[in-house]
Each structure stands twice: as C-alpha cells, then as structure tokens.
TrEMBL record:
The keyword Nucleotide-binding applies. Residues 64-259, 512-703 form the Hexokinase N-terminal domain. The keyword DNA-binding does not apply. PANTHER family: HEXOKINASE, HEXOKINASE-3. GO terms for molecular function: ATP binding; D-glucose binding; fructokinase activity; glucokinase activity; mannokinase activity. It is a peripheral membrane protein. It is found in: Mitochondrion outer membrane. This is hexokinase.
C-alpha cells in the first residue's frame, strides 16, 4: 500500500493549492494589506528588520499554519491509491492487515426503475447530526408527476444522543407518531424506510447491526445490535401505529437512489454533511462476504475511518490531532474529521485560537467562546467563507464569539475557512477518485461514464465545495466522465425508493415463488412418481392399459466382447442423423461417421421422401468411405416408439420429437427402409437390426462395462430401456433369460397420472406441440421442450410485472426462441450472469440484473424438476431390476446419452442425487456414452450375425 509522503512546496504551488477560484494568493493579500515583502520573503529584509510593526510575522504564522492544510496532487494521488488498496482489501475479505475502510454490502441490488409507486414513511437518523427527520413520500411511478414529500425535523436532545439506546429509539418512535398525528394519512400497512447513517453490518434489506457510533452519537446498548429490531420494538412500545419497517439504508444509499429518474441512474452516492461517506454499485462477485456471484450490490465504503491506521499521518495537521483528541471517538473516523461538517467548524476554531494565541489574529486576544469546543459551526464557516457574504458577515460572527476583529483579521479568517474547506473538498475528491478507479477495475472499463448523486448540507450550503471536488476529480481520474447530480430532499426520496424497491422485490419474490413452487418437487412427490412408474411398468409388461408401452426389443443379451466385423449403422431421431461405419475387432471398436441433416420439411413430409433421403445419405457415406457396392450388415438406430416383432421388424407406433412423416405410423420401418433401398438402384444393404437409441446406448456402454443393463436418453426426447426378466414380459414367449425392454417412458403420464405435477406452462407447451396430449413425461424433461417451458414462465412473469418491467416483447412471444441450450449456458457456474445478459440481450430483452437473476432461477427450477423426474424414473427402473432379482443390494450401470444430460452443468448430478435418494439399495453408476448409439446398433447387429452364424453351423 503506497504511503502518503510529506511534501515541501513553492509558494506559488502552495497558493494555487490553497485558493482555487479567483481569491488572490495569501501573500498577495498580505502584500495588499501592507504585509509587504512576503513575495520578497526569500532574502528580502522583513519589516521587523526595518523596525516596522511585523504583519509579516503574523502572516508568516498564518501562512505556516495554512501550509499545513495544503495537500499536493501527489499526496492526493497517494491517498486515492491507498484508499483504493484498502477498499479492494476489504472487498476481498482479507483479514490482515485489517483494512481501515469497511466496504459494507447494503443488499440494494439495483438502482431504481422509476416504476416504484406507493406511499412510504421515511425515518432519517444520523445524517444531519443532532436532528432526525420523518418524511411521507409518495412515489408516482413513471407516469406520475413528482410529489413533494411532506417532512418534519425533530431536534435530538444531546442527552438522548449520548444516553441509553432505548431512549433514542423511543424518541424516534415518538417523533413518528407525532408526525402521523399531524398528517391525516391512511394508517393501513404503513411501510417505513429507515435511513440510519452509521456503519452497519447488513444481513438483509431489513436486518442491520450497528458496528460503531460516529458523529457525536454515543448511545449505549446499541452497538452490535440490529437497529431495525430496536426500532420495531420501540414502535411496538409506542403502540400508536402499526408500522412495518421494510428496509434500512445508509444515507449515502438513499442519496444515490434519490437521483432524479432520467438523469441517472446514479451509481455512486456521496454524502458530506456532519459526517462523510460514499456508496457505489459493485459487482456482487467481487464482494467476498457475499456468496453471490451474480448482479451488482451497493456497497457503503465507510471511508470516514480511512487512515485510522495512521496512513494519513503526513497530511494530518496538529489541529486535526487536537480535534481528534477532544472528540467522542479519538483515533477513529480520522478521514471524516478532516471533511465532515461536524468537524470543519471545530478545525477553523482550533486554527483561529492558535493564531490568536500567537498574536497573529485578533491582536493576540482570544475569547471564552473561541476557546470552547464546538463554538464555530459549519454554518459559521460557510457564511464566513461565502464570497458574497463578504467581510461584514465575518465580522458579525467573530463579534458574536466575543472577538475584537482587526482590519485584516476578517480576510485572514476567511483564508483559514477556505484552507480548511478546500482541503476537505480535495480530500473528498481523492476518496471519490478511489471509488471511480474501483468502478473502472470492477467493470473492466477504462473509459467510465458515471453519475454521482451528492447529498448533505456541505454540498447544499457551500457551492464551491462541489466545484473544488469536481476539478480535483478531473485531475485525478481524467478518463472518467463524471456528472454530479444533487439529490433531491436529502435522500428521503431515495430511502423511499429503496423501501419501494424492497417492497417490490419482496412482492416479486412472492410472485416468483408462487410461480415456481409447482416446479419444486419434494421427496414425497418424487417417490410418488417412482411408484406410479413402477406400477405402469408392471402393467405395461403384462400388456394391461398403461402409459408405458414396455416394448420388447428382441435384444436378449448385452455384448460379450466376441463380436467381430464391419457394420454400417444409422442413427435417426436425435439432434443429428448419422451414418456410421463400425469396425469391431479384438482390439476394440473403430467408428467412422458422418452427420447429415434432416430438414424439417423432410421430417414432416412423406415417409417415402424421408426414407429416400436416408438412403441418399447412406450412398453418399459409402462413396466417401469407398464402400460403394459393398453390402455390409446394417444396424438401424430408430429413436421412436416401435413395436418390434423381431430384431429387424419394428412397427412405428407414433412419431415424436417434431417428426411427423406421413404413411409411416403403423408401418414396419425396416420395410420402409428396404423399399427405399430397393428404389435406389445398385445399392445393396443388409438391414439386420432396428434398435431404439436407448438400447443402442445401453449396448454401446455395455461393451465397456457388462454391468450396464439400463439405457437412458435425455436429449431432444427422453426414454429408457433395461434388461427385464423374460418371464415378466407377457408378450414374448419364454421364462428364462432376459429381454431388453424399451419403456418409451416419454409417454408416461399420457393417462393423466402426472396431472398433479402438470403446470399451466406444461399445458401451454403441450397445446402448441404437434402431438398435444402425448409424451407428457418427455415434455416435462427433454431438450425439445424445456426452453419453451422457460419461455412461457418468462412471459407469465413479464405479464405480472416481475420481469422486464412488465414489457412484453415480440421476440419473447416467438416459439422456440428460448433454446434449451440457453439453460445449460445460463446455469453454468462460471460466467452465469454475463451469459444471461448476453443471451437475453441477443433476444432483444431489456433486462436489469434483477431480471437476469430471476431468469436464472426460472431456468434452475425447470431443469431441476426435469432432472428430478428423470431421476425418479431411473430409480423406478433400477428398483424393478433389484426386485426382479430379489437382491438386497443391486450394483448396476446406466448408459446415458443425449445433449441435455451431457451439456447441462447440473442435470446429471441432480439425476444421480435423486436416484440415491429414492433407490438407496441400488449402487448406480452413470456411464456417458462416448460413441452414441450407432456403435450399439452395430453391436446388436454383430450379436445377431453371430447368433445367425451359430444357427447355420
Ligand atoms: C446420441 C445417440 C442418438 C440419440 C441422441 C439423443 O446422439 O447417438 O441415438 O438419439 O444421442 O440425444 P439428442 O440430444 O441428440 O437428442
Ligand atoms: C457514517 C456513515 C454515513 C456518513 C454520512 C459517517 O459517520 O459512518 O455511515 O454515511 O457519516 O452521514
Ligand atoms: C422416443 C424414444 C426415444 C427418445 C429419445 C422419444 O421421443 O419416443 O423412442 O428413445 O425420444 O430419443
């Protein structure tokens, strides 16, 4: 951390530093009032040497005194860098060395929308020192005009500021009811925003623990306590009104949020009143204490305590040390004591007393008032410093302090005021520059354009404070384009905004929870799905009415490794149509494949067109692989529900997943393929087997792991197969051995058995699909539908005003515009929010960071339900196998494929967790299939060929 160096300056430099803006340099002034020869100071004999009365000595004294208040640009840069270092240290949660600035998250996550509406009570405590203010603020949203808040100020008696905490909060509650007694407002559900301007650890928008008092407050029994609870208790004790304290904010936050709509949003709030502090919108992921890596959060810097580790040593004057020693909190808030309005008057008093006691002012006379602490207030200094008020006012103030004011005294006093003020403004600028540099860092923006809301009586009553601050900020961070926006009515409106935001967020949170609650399935519901599926499996196997067709696949065994040969394989029904050459040798399986597209018009055209297209792809592949004219055994992965009558006979029951080619349902698709081959001269293909992609996946993984007896697909569609005991398969003869059953679980619930879980969004998606009423389970789980479910939820939340400020956009009303792959991207742990923004901005959606967080929660809820339902299905299957074999414990592997399962960051983990929960007696390993089901189809073909050879032997 760079140290702030002590610095010597040339007189010119020092004057420029001391008196920006037009007043003649002190030495010039001294000269003008006869303190001649200041300029000639170096080597020029002084007036005393000339035996004249020595104004120069007093001016020397004044100059030497005021020199202490000079802070050079280098020192300001060092303060800026040092404060920035402390800020980043505190943000990072670095414990040692402890940072002197606290960087307190405020739970305000967004700047006002301007849509905030309603009547709010605001209680301000601590911003303006010994007074508190109650306001009634009416927010009119975007349409309405600005309503002037009604407010009342109450002076806090000193004994209340220094007494027991309960007394202070009772005083506040009393002021609230006195205010409400005076104003006939409807006392229904009074929502209050509490502006509490002291350093607090916030743990929520309405939970805040006081760390330490500042600015003249010192009540007992409050530090370490939740001030919202203390206020709620006091309001209850008062018992006059039922007031709900909805939010507590720091005054800087109120100031930032009080920015006039349309000029902002202001993302920095800066207060210089009795105390000083700033807040700004930090990227949440940079705030270590918040385990949140998404969106922004307003951080209260609490820069008043900067330098409490002596870092400010070189720029602290003897007057600063004197003031600190006499203060209520010596050693603390050192930076604030150089800037805050509570201290500036005292600093001026200490300097004037010092100069008077050394004869440089007021003829060397002091007065009891001049020597008593707090006798010069901020008000006095601003008036004395005010260029318009002129010397007359200065005289009046000094005379009130019992001082006899000499000719030059008034001007010298004004120089003292200016020196103290100018330093305060420049130090404040250095601190603000540190905040702006931090924003550049956290947003990785070199060129930062930002609006800073300013609040506090130092700004209101001392116009040059802002101009000095602005000038200095431009010097220190020239690449930042900073606009300063005075906050209206001292942040009261801002606090009401936060309260409105809190109330809105709370209302939105309630609406979001209500909307997503049906997606949050509990263990009972999932166990019920598992049980219903097991029941439907048993019925389906027995050929009874069931939404699970439980189709025998005529695959009786998983590969045993003795398969050999070259095979062609087709893989139709997933995202891509692939033609594969699979070479099975002792050394393993080599696969060469090519992806071909199935245009929607072919998938939804005529069956002949579809199968001719398939054969064209095969021919193209054979040519490319130099296989033309060869008649290799072919395995056909056909990922649709087929009633198989044999390994190479499959009657298509119905299309799914957006396919709808005519004249296919009810047909043997192997025949359709052979007919298409027949139509294409000179192509000889030997179609040996047709398998479902679940079977192909199980076989493909079974080749590596013989315990793999379940195949699972979670891709465009979803389905599962498993090795069932032949004795349980009513439609196939034989009681021994196994038969792989294609469950076609996509249709589970088509009998209404999932009605309790079905949401209105599922109904919207189903009605808009080409097969309404069909594939209910699939439409709650698979990739073809999750994006659409999310889109419908987003439309619903937008209609409730929870999202996108209630603005429906054409784009979001477009079917399939919210791709399921967006869920995988949005839920990825690393860059989620930026992803969310990028994706949603591409969709032309105007979003805030709250919106982005809500979209993320919607995606999480939809994908979580899908994964849990899928897990409940797998639990039903493995439990069935375990019970089939009468085993206490079952160890089994599940071969899995499908884009959603493979690409979604959490899906596979949630499926496994649900299976562990619902089938604890099954040790299930999920094997992601590397080569897809094409390899599996080739292996099924290889097994069939081996069995056929054995039959011929
Ligand atoms: C792999 C398999 C296909 C299966 C698909 C399902 O690609 O080889 O047989 O149909 O996965 O996943 P998808 O996400 O493509 O629908
Ligand atoms: C407090 C801050 C407050 C500032 C301005 C400081 O003393 O610690 O919380 O924002 O004064 O009122
Ligand atoms: C089909 C199944 C297939 C699954 C996965 C479903 O739509 O009906 O046969 O296994 O999608 O691709």
């Amino acid at each position: 951390m760079p140290h702030i160096e002590r610095e010597e300056l040339t007189p010119e430099e020092s004057d420029q530093l001391l008196l920006p803006g037009g007043r003649p340099p002190l030495w010039k002034h001294m000269e003008s009032i006869g303190a001649v020869g200041l300029q000639q100071r170096e080597g020029v004999p002084s007036c005393s040497q000339k035996g004249l009365p020595c104004p120069s000595d007093s001016s020397e004294l004044v100059l030497e005194c005021l020199q202490q208040f000079k802070v050079t640009q280098t020192q300001l840069q060092q303060i800026q860098t040092s404060l920035l270092g402390s800020m980043e240290q505190a943000l990072g949660g670095q414990a040692s060395p402890a940072s002197t600035v606290r960087m307190l998250p405020t739970y305000v996550g967004s700047t006002p929308h301007g849509t905030e509406q309603g009547d709010f009570l605001v209680l301000e405590l601590g911003a303006t020192g010994a007074s508190l203010r109650v306001l009634w603020v009416t927010l009119m949203g975007t349409e309405g005009h600005r309503m002037e808040p009604r407010s009342q100020e109450f002076v806090i008696p000193p004994e209340v500021m220094l007494g027991p905490g309960q007394q202070l909060f009772d005083f506040a509650a009393h002021c609230l009811s006195e205010f409400l007694d005076a104003f006939p407002v409807s006392t229904q559900d009074l929502q209050l925003g509490f502006s509490f301007s002291f350093p607090c650890h916030q743990t929520g928008l309405d939970r805040s623990t006081l760390i330490s008092w500042t600015k003249g407050f010192r009540c007992s029994g409050v530090e370490g306590h939740d001030v919202v609870q203390l206020l709620r208790d006091a309001i209850k004790r008062q018992g006059a009104y039922n007031i709900d304290v909805v939010a507590v904010v720091n005054d800087t936050v109120g100031t930032m949020m009080g920015c006039e709509p349309g000029v902002g949003p202001c993302e920095v709030g800066l207060v210089v009143d009795t105390g000083t502090n700033a807040c700004y919108m930090e990227e949440a992921r940079h705030v270590a204490v918040l385990d949140e890596d998404r969106g922004r959060v307003c951080v209260s810097v609490e820069w008043g305590s900067f330098g409490d580790d002596e870092a400010l040593g070189p720029v602290l004057t003897t007057f600063d040390h004197a003031l600190d020693r006499e203060s209520l909190n010596p050693g603390a808030q050192r930076f604030e004591k150089m800037i805050g309005g509570l201290y500036l008057g005292e600093l001026v008093r200490l300097v004037l007393a010092h100069l008077a006691q050394r004869g440089a002012l007021f003829g060397g006379c002091t007065s009891p008032a001049l020597l008593s602490r707090g006798s010069i207030l901020l008000q006095h200094v601003t008036e004395m410093e005010d260029p318009l008020a002129g010397a007359a006012r200065v005289h009046a103030i000094l005379q009130d302090l019992g001082l006899s004011v000499g000719a030059s005294d008034a001007e010298l006093v004004r120089y003292v005021c200016t020196a103290v003020f100018t330093r305060a403004a420049r130090l404040c600028a250095a601190a603000l520059a540190a905040v702006l540099s931090r924003l550049q860092h956290s947003r990785e923006q070199q060129m930062l354009q930002i609006a800073v809301a300013t609040g506090g009586r130092v700004f209101e009553r001392h116009p040059s404070f802002l101009s000095i601050l602005q000038e200095t900020v431009m010097l220190l961070v020239p690449e930042c384009d900073v606009s300063f926006i005075p906050s209206v009515d001292g942040g009261g409106r801002g606090v009401a905004m936060v309260t409105a935001v809190a109330a809105r967020l709370a209302a939105h949170r309630r609406l979001l929870e209500e909307t997503l609650a049906p997606f949050r399935l509990n263990r009972e519901q999932l166990a019920a799905v598992q049980a219903q599926m097991q029941e439907a499996m048993a019925k389906g196997l027995q050929g009874e009415a069931s939404s699970l067709r439980m189709l025998p696949t005529y695959v009786r065994a998983t590969p045993d490794g003795s398969e050999r040969g070259d095979f062609l394989a087709l893989d139709l029904g997933g995202t891509n149509f692939r033609v594969l050459l699979v070479r099975v040798t002792a050394g393993g399986v080599q696969i060469t494949s090519q992806v071909y597209s199935i245009p929607e018009c072919v998938a939804q055209g005529s069956g002949q067109q579809l199968f001719d297209h398939i054969v064209d792809c095969i021919v193209d592949f054979q040519q490319k692989q130099g296989l033309s004219g060869q008649s290799l055994p072919l395995g056909f992965t056909f990922s649709f529900p087929c009633r198989q009558l044999g390994l190479d006979q499959g009657i298509l029951l119905n299309w799914t997943k957006g396919f709808n080619a005519s004249d296919c349902e009810g047909q043997d698709v192997v025949c359709l393929l052979r007919e298409a081959i027949g139509r294409k001269q000179a192509v000889k293909l030997n179609v040996v087997a047709i398998v479902n992609d679940t079977v192909g996946t199980m076989m493909s993984c079974g080749y590596e792991d013989p315990r793999c007896e379940v195949g699972l697909i979670v891709g465009t569609g979803t389905n599962a197969c498993y090795m069932e005991e032949l004795r349980n398969v009513a439609s196939v003869a034989g009681d021994s051995g196994h038969m792989c059953i294609n469950m076609e679980w996509g249709a589970f619930g088509d009998d209404g058995s999932l009605g309790l879980l079905r949401t209105c969004f599922d109904a919207n998606v189903d009605q808009a699909s080409i097969n309404p009423g069909k594939q209910s389970f699939e439409k709650m789980i698979s990739g073809m539908y999750l994006g659409e479910i999310v889109r419908h939820i987003l439309l619903h939340l937008t209609s409730l005003g929870v999202l996108f400020r209630g603005q429906q956009t054409q784009r979001l009303q477009t079917r399939d515009i919210f791709k399921t792959k967006f869920l995988s991207e949005i839920e990825s742990d690393s860059l989620a929010l930026r992803q969310v923004r990028a994706i949603l901005e591409d969709l032309g959606l105007p979003l805030t960071s709250d919106d982005a967080l809500i979209v993320l929660e919607v995606c999480q809820a939809v994908s979580q339900r899908a994964a849990q339902l899928c897990g409940a299905g797998v639990a039903a299957v493995v439990e069935k196998i375990r019970e089939n074999r009468g085993l206490e414990e079952l160890t089994v592997s599940v071969g899995v494929d499908g884009t959603l399962y493979k690409l979604h960051p959490h899906f596979s983990g949630l499926v496994a967790a649900t299976v562990r929960e619902l089938a604890p007696r099954c040790a299930v390993t999920f094997l992601q299939s590397e080569d897809g089901s094409g390899k599996g189809a080739a292996l099924v073909t290889a097994v069939a060929c081996r069995l056929a050879q054995m039959d011929h032997v």
